[in-house]
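Quick one, probably user error.
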């Protein structure tokens, strides 16, 4: 069963420009170069409601594939050198696992 993972990173106020720079110059290029972006549905920036958030949604075949993905990603030295710079800019991290409802479009 396909599993979707939503991650919401609430940033410290005033840090959005630096987070965008880090993801653009370091984080996302590593995800692409090492083949991790194939699981990515998309990255989003909050525009209304709760502000200062980066939201990303990932798609996996199942929970086992999801766990293997994160284990492999966190073993990447290039990605972890990016993460070390990024984490101090976060205030809160939320992770939610989701499955498609049995009605409507199936992404």
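Nope, works fine. Designed sequence:
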């Amino acid at each position: 069963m396909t599993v979707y993972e939503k991650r919401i990173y609430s940033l410290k106020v005033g840090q959005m420009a630096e987070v965008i720079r880090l993801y653009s110059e370091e984080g996302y290029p590593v995800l692409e170069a090492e083949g991790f972006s194939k699981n990515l549905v998309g990255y989003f920036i909050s525009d209304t409601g709760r502000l200062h958030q980066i939201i990303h949604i990932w798609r996996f075949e199942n929970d086992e594939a999801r766990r293997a993905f994160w284990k492999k990603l966190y073993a990447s030295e290039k990605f972890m050198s990016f993460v070390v710079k990024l984490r101090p800019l976060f205030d809160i991290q939320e992770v939610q696992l989701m499955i498609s409802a049995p009605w409507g479009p199936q992404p």
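The mean pLDDT is 96.
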